[in-house]
Amino acid sequence: MKISATDAGKRLDSYLADSFEELTRSRVQKLIVQGEIRVNGKEVRANYKLREADDVEVNIPDAKEVEITAEEIPLDIVFEDECMLVVNKPQGMVVHPAAGNYSGTLVNALMSHCGDNLSGINGEIRPGILHRIDKDTSGLLMVAKNDRAHMGLSEQIKEHSLTREYLALVHGSLKEDSGTIDAPIGRDEKDRKKMTITTKNARNAVTHFFVLERFDKYTFVRCRLETGRTHQIRVHMSKSGHPIVGDPVYGRKKEEFKLNGQLLHAHMIGFVHPVSGEYMEFSRAIPEYFEAVLEKLRRKML
């Protein structure tokens, strides 16, 4: 990939980690040490400052044999072809294995469904995973079956050219029928498990919202992501004074509904197919438990 004037001056490891949402900085640094990443044909250090027109070559070694067990877990597959899938993830399912969650994840299910046909770019723990949504958020995710598809879709994530929309129920009544929250998000220094709006070690984050339905103490909204930061919608809505109903981290402690997580659903995703070049768009309605809360609120309004 050729470096543009806009990206000149950035550290090599930071640039590549930002370019591929699920390729972590530590993973990039390991590839650099292994000589799998070169600039203008030469090996460089992770802190190399990029220059305009630099030619960055990235070689992703074949994925190592995965130690994670394939599990026959039902998947709601919205679209599938030889190079990718779009999956509707249920609330409560973790996307990829991590401490405390080495089974029952989307990756375990994908390994059973796809076998060896998953991209190896993210290594043995996250094969095929391009982006993720939180455990207690439901909705649509793209999965790459090969590295070509992974690179093509990751580039769209980097360029913010994907169409990603979420549906959410938030506390309170928003003053405007639509608006934009443009506030950088970074790790909370007081609680490293949380994200927050900050200027320290933060990345720009933009969320557009549109009111769909108003209730007495709640608002049903559609949110369109311009960027895709960790917990972005949850943080933006909470900091604006309208936390998502049921959010155990950024929401209110007392909720009137018996929920297992936030009422947030990734209902639509649109992208250019990495091989055919065709624009594709898919959507899925909110889950039954989400619809049940809305129906309860509608009855109260009668």
Q: How would you portray this structure in words?
A:
- With 302 residues, the protein is of the alpha+beta class.
- The protein has 3 domains: 12-58, Structural Genomics Hypothetical 15.5 Kd Protein In mrcA-pckA Intergenic Region, Chain A (Roll); 76-156, 2-Layer Sandwich (Pseudouridine synthase), CATH 3.30.2350.10; 163-267 and 288-301, Pseudouridine synthase (2-Layer Sandwich).
- It has helices spanning 12-19, 25-33, 106-114, 147-158, 232-239, 288-301, and strands at residues 37-39, 42-43, 56-58, 76-80, 84-89, 138-144, 163-171, 178-182, 185-187, 195-197, 206-214, 218-225, 264-272, 279-283.
- The strands form 3 sheets. Strands 4, 5, 6, 7, 8, 11, 12, 13 and 14 form a 9-stranded mixed beta sheet that branches. The protein has a 3-stranded antiparallel beta sheet with strand order 2-1-3. A two-stranded antiparallel sheet has the order 9-10.
- A hairpin with a 3-residue loop joins strand 11 (206-214) and strand 12 (218-225).
- It is globular and about 70 Å long.
- The chain starts with 11 loop residues before the first helix and ends with a helix.
- The mean pLDDT is 91.
